Amino acid sequence: MKSLSPAKQLFASLATYVLLLLLSLTAASLFPAYRLPILLLPLIPGFLIVLALLAAIRNMDEMQRRIQLEALGFAFAGMFMLLVTEALLNAGLAQPPAPAAGSYIFYMAMMWGVGLLVARRKYA
User: Highest-confidence range of 25-34, 68-77, 103-112, by mean pLDDT?
Assistant: First the structure.
């Protein structure tokens, strides 16, 4: 049987992740005794998302890989600066506010996108 392309693997993994996330949030309230394992179920397709992204990177040519590497480097450095800034600001507060759930994932994706724009412009 022919295996799926990395793009189809990624789409299937993301769809499964969203479905399991919604189901786990609902099921966790229905079965409080099993709340923790139920809430961790979306990690399984999350791991498959990582594998699909790695497969997609393996299928890229050298220039595309370089652009992705520079974009991820930008995102890593940007997140580092964001987290250090947050830690320094929270150090002065008696009761620092809790970060919004999932906000760091959004910031990382946003910085990756900005990094892609910068790297693509550099090589265009």
Answer: 68-77
Domain that holds residue 32: 1-59
What are the Cα distances from residue 73, in Å, to 8, 41, 99, 108, 120?
Answer: 26, 29, 23, 11, 14
Helix, strand, coil share of the chain (percent; to 5) = 80, 0, 20
* Domains in the chain, number: 2
Three-state DSSP state, 62:
helix
**Amino acid identity, residue 103?**
S
State the residue for tokens 């693509």. Answer: 120
Do 52 and 30 share a structural domain?
A: yes
Q: Is the pTM of this model over 0.85?
A: no
